[in-house]
Every structure is written in C-alpha cells, then in structure tokens.
Amino acid sequence: MIGVLSLGGCGAGGDDRPVVRVSAAASLGPVLQKLRPAFEDELGVTVRLNLAGSGTLTRQVLDGAPADAVILSHPDWMTPLIDAGRVEAGDVVPLAGNALVVVGRGPAIDLEQLAEPRFGRIAIGDPDSVPAGLYAKQALITAGVWDAVETKLVTTADVRAALRYAQAGDVEAAIIYATDAADLAEVDRSHGLAVLHRLASDMHDPITITAATVDGSASGAVLLDWLRSPQAWEGFAAAGFDRP
C-alpha cells in the first residue's frame, strides 16, 4: 500500500491535510473526479485539480503556475517543461491510452463523409494546443479530407468543450476522445447524440497520456504512483481508457 503523505501545506476550510496540486488534461477530468475520494482518503491529502487543454497547462506551468504533477494528452507537450527544467525527462511516465470517435446525430458514417454538406460545422480541439485536435487533424489529413473540412471547423480550448457543442446541437459533429463519448448522459442519447464513427488508431499518432512530477515534488510523485496502481487502473479501464 502507498503510504500516507506527511508534507507541508494545508487544505482549505481548516483541513490540515497536505494539498497536492494536479494540472491535468480536461479529458481526464471525469475519471480523476471519480478517483479523487479514494486517493485522498488513502494518501491523506487534499487534491486540487486544474483542468484545461494540454497546451494551456504547459503554458501555465511555464509561466510559474504552482503544480505538483502534470498529466498531458500528448507527450510532445512535456518537452517545453523538460527544456525549462520544470520536469525531469526521467520522471515522465505513460499513464493511459485513448481513441478518437466522431459524435453526432444520424446513422453511422465513414470519416470521409464529414466533407459532405450536411456536416456544416464540426467541433474539434484547437490543433495548436489541444492534443485531441491535433490527433483529429492528423486523421483528417490521412483520410484526405482536411482541405474539405478545414473551413467548417469550430476549434475549442479543450476536447470537453467540443463535446458540449455537440450536446447543444451547435455543430453537426464533433471529434472527441472515446472516453468522452462513453460519458454521454442518457439525455444526450435520448436526443439522438451517438458515436457515428471510431477512428482507426493508425490514422494519427498514438494517443499516449503522460504524467510527470513538477519541480521534483514528492507529493506529486506519490500521487502519480497511486494513479499507476492496480486500484487506479480499474477506474481508468471502467472509464474506457486503454493500457498505454
């Protein structure tokens, strides 16, 4: 069993447990929220989650934002943190894998059909800062339809925002992580929102979620050890994540 932390710092509202600050990709939000009670109780800590797109998180840490651990949806976003000395290359570990799906309303489609006029607006994460958007762009290029769909794209600050556009009916389709689609509420399904296509993994870079401690944080290291434990993996698997 991983031991209880006894580090400096305290939680809000009189809670004297040490605080562990985790900056994590927005797509990890639901599973980390579900796991949080277990790792807070077992480790004796209060966890503060900062959820955003991976590029945004990297820029925040580079600008001096406090963090004990960072969890990103593309390993390339670790490179600036390593170059800046905030993360040690040897501390970067794979945490989980994922896949991409197209969600929308109507029958199943092939990816190439997103070029058809009925898909007037398509939401994806911003490829310049959101890994899900970068993976989606790579897949659309591989499918030969990037030029046809580029002008129809609604780019978002994180992949969960792309899902919200689809839920609201503001776009005809969104390319999101399979784990986000697994989290669709029953009301979404009752309104016809469903997975229209699952992208083949060879159409884009491997989706590898990586994690690392920041500035050698001991509390961050203990938390990441817990997140790689069999107990934590049960939660990741139940949420639809793949082994890295």
Q: How many distinct helices?
A: 10
Count of strand segments: 10
- What string gives the helices and strands in order? EHEHEHEEEHHEHEHHEEHH
Helix content: 25-40%
Radius of gyration over C-alpha positions, nearest whole angstrom: 19 Å
**How would a crystallographer describe the biggest sheet?**
5 strands, mixed
User: Going across the major beta sheet, what is the strand order?
Assistant: 2-1-3-10-4
- Class from helix and strand fractions: alpha/beta
What percent of residues are in strands? 15-25%
Distance between the termini: 23 Å
Dominant shape: globular
Task: Outline the structure in words.
By secondary structure, the protein is α/β, with parallel strands linked by helices. The chain has helices spanning 29-43, 54-62, 79-83, 131-142, 146-149, 159-168, 178-182, 186-190, 218-227, 230-238, and strands at 19-25, 46-52, 69-72, 93-97, 100-105, 122-125, 153-156, 173-177, 193-198, 208-213. The strands form 2 sheets. The protein has a 5-stranded mixed sheet with strand order 2-1-3-10-4. Strands 7-6-8-5-9 form a 5-stranded mixed sheet, with helices on both faces. Strand 1, helix 1 and strand 2 (46-52) form a beta-alpha-beta unit. The longest helix is centred in the first third of the chain and has 15 residues, at 29-43. The protein is globular, with a radius of gyration of 19 Å. Residues 1-14 have low confidence and may be disordered.
